[in-house]
Specification:
With 261 residues, chain A is an alpha/beta fold. In chain A, 39% of the residues lie in helices and 27% in strands. Chain A has 8 helices and 9 strands. Chain A has a 6-stranded mixed β-sheet with strand order 5-6-7-3-8-9, sandwiched between helices. In chain A, strands 2-1-4 form a 3-stranded antiparallel β-sheet. Chain A is globular, with a radius of gyration of 21 Å. Chain B has 285 residues and is mainly alpha-helical. The longest helix of chain B has 27 residues. Chain B is elongated, with a radius of gyration of 22 Å. The relative contact order of chain B is 0.13. Classes of the chains: A alpha/beta (261), B mainly alpha (285). The interface between A and B is large, with 56 and 44 residues.
Chain lengths: 261, 285
């Protein structure tokens, strides 16, 4: 390990398990009393998913790291744990400052206007009222929602919600930025604009983790890539090397599958 | 990497655990730093609550008025519970408003975390702000009700006395108690959605033993002294009686009621705060 590099994110033998509620029972008062007394939820089928199974890595200032892997390989869970939005079941994550997750998962509060959502999002991130006001115009312009900004967010389309949500988080300078673009529902035009914004943030942020739709984008922006497979790191290294290996693996599996049919 | 090198890196570069909950003092300071966030969440709730109705925010005033009118009609006129109570109208309105504040606040606090799931999943912040926002929103509503209460009290011929000065003190105690109870329920509500099914039964029972529409002293005259004392010292009855004592000349309390008002407030506030804080880790998964 070279001594001149400054570590900003240290992931130490991280395990993440989360519970998925498969179905809810009927909510009767008697059942509620039983479950309160027993401490169990009899009406609910709960399954535990072991999403990240012992990941260790160190990211340094100036690193832009692309995460690749199939659906369910633990990419999003890893980002959520780094941001402190998921509690590790084992191991831990250490960061130089609070990492911000730039997700695109819809409205923060559907019943109030887009404008109020900007305020809520900004204040929740720890900004002052003055800082929120300073960023408001930029957020509205970037999200391209000027005519709808005073309408309740419940009336927005999913794409519009995603745009506003992205714009709120992206309006701020971040030392450690986690971008999860896989859930993006914006249109092609906004996607292009958001990718340009991510590049800009990657240039100014200290450390970036990026989960993206496009491999091209990862190859372009990232100096390092990590391939996650079933919750463990399969390969960690230079972007091109890791992505080439990942592509080869996908091709191989495809061929094997076709041969099997 | 071995454990030793990890610890030395953490120390050397001042890295902080992303999952560790800060000590209580720091946690409270981080919450306080987000006071504007608490106010904004409270405002958003009020807006959402009233924006769908034609009369909008007028309901903030209409709801307490209608509540008082209904209780007066049923218990004052139809059932005649007013036996032995001077100025039953003011007595009843005070009971209904003071109790409704506690009931509404703890009910909303109990679902504060599940209701804000999206926010919790998106941004890291001390979750204490969520139940506190519920309390703040209900305090705003409560103050509107108190204006109605003062009007009713004056209209029914009560004089303004020096005891009115005790009102701010009584309200602070009541808010501290209610916040504490709300925080306890907020933690329960985070792990069990069932709490919302049970809560109405609890608040209804509590309402009936707190002397909202009858005088506990008169009602329990034939009961054992233990039952009578237990009813009078329950926090619901205590805060209702303290408000009546402050605003109405016909109502006076033993000093023990004042002492219990302070005891319940401090006990529940401190226990609720610590209990909620100690559950912080559980609120994110």
């Amino acid at each position: 390990m070279s001594t001149d590099k400054i570590p900003t994110v240290l992931v130490d033998d991280l395990h993440v398990r989360y519970r998925v509620i498969l179905g809810a029972g009927t909510g009767s008062a008697a059942g509620a009393m039983r479950s309160l007394l027993s401490g169990k939820s009899p009406g609910q089928l709960v399954k535990s998913v072991h999403a990240v199974k012992g990941v260790s890595l160190t990211a340094y200032e100036g690193d832009t790291i692309g995460l690749v892997g199939r659906n369910g390989s633990g990419k999003s869970s890893l980002l959520n744990a780094i941001a402190g939005l998921l509690q590790p079941s084992q191991g831990d994550v250490y960061t130089a400052s609070r990492a911000t997750l730039l997700g695109v998962k819809g409205a923060l509060n559907k019943s109030v206007s887009g404008n109020r959502n900007i305020t809520i999002g900004g204040l929740a991130m720890g900004m002052s009222r003055a800082e929120v006001e300073a960023m408001r115009a930029d957020v509205i312009e970037f999200a391209d929602l000027a005519e709808f900004i005073d309408m309740p967010m419940g009336t927005y389309s999913t794409g519009m919600q995603a745009r506003l949500r992205f714009s709120i988080a992206a309006a701020r300078q971040h030392e450690i930025l986690l971008v999860d673009e896989t859930l993006s529902t914006g249109d092609t035009e906004f996607r292009a604009r958001s990718q340009a914004k991510i590049r800009e943030l990657a240039d100014s942020a200290g450390t970036v983790f990026l989960v993206a739709h496009s491999q091209t984008m990862i190859r372009e922006v990232c100096n390092r890539a990590i391939w996650l497979d079933k919750g463990v790191i399969k390969l960690d290294g230079k972007t091109d090397e890791v992505l080439d290996a990942y592509d080869a693996d996908i091709q191989e599996k495809k061929v094997a599958k076709e041969a099997g049919n | 990497m071995n454990e030793k090198s990890i610890t030395s890196i953490i120390d050397e570069f001042g890295l902080v655990s992303a999952s560790k909950i800060p000590p209580l003092g720091k946690y409270l300071r981080e919450t306080w730093r987000r006071w504007d966030f608490i106010l904004e969440l409270a405002r958003a709730r009020s807006t959402a609550e009233y924006s769908d109705s034609l009369l909008g925010r007028i309901w903030q005033l209409l709801t307490p008025l209608l509540n008082a009118a209904i209780y007066f009609f049923i218990f004052g006129i139809l059932l005649g519970t007013k036996k032995g109570i001077e100025n039953y109208t003011a007595f009843l309105v005070a009971g209904v408003f003071v109790f409704n504040f506690m009931q509404a606040t703890i009910t909303i606090a109990a679902s504060a975390l599940p209701k804000n799931e999206r926010l919790i999943q998106a941004i890291h912040f001390p979750k204490l702000v969520l139940p506190l926002a519920a309390v703040v929103q209900q305090i705003q509503q409560y103050f509107v009700s108190l204006v109605v209460l003062v009007a009713v009290v004056l209209f029914t011929g009560e004089p303004i006395t020096v005891m009115w000065l005790a009102m701010p003190f009584v309200l602070i105690l009541q808010i501290l108690f209610t916040t504490g109870l709300g925080l306890i329920l907020a933690r329960w509500g985070a792990s069990s959605r069932d709490i919302n099914q049970l809560l109405p039964f609890f608040t209804r029972s509590w309402r009936y033993v707190s002397g909202v529409f009858f005088s506990i002293t008169i009602f329990t005259a034939t009961f054992s002294v233990w039952v009578s004392t237990a009813l009078q010292l329950n926090p619901g009855a205590v805060y209702i009686d303290l408000v009546r004592d402050s605003l109405m000349t016909s109502q006076t309390n033993e000093p023990i009621i004042w002492i219990m008002g302070v005891v319940w407030a401090l006990l529940f506030f401190v226990v609720g705060l610590v209990y909620f804080y100690r559950g912080e880790k559980k609120y994110v998964n």
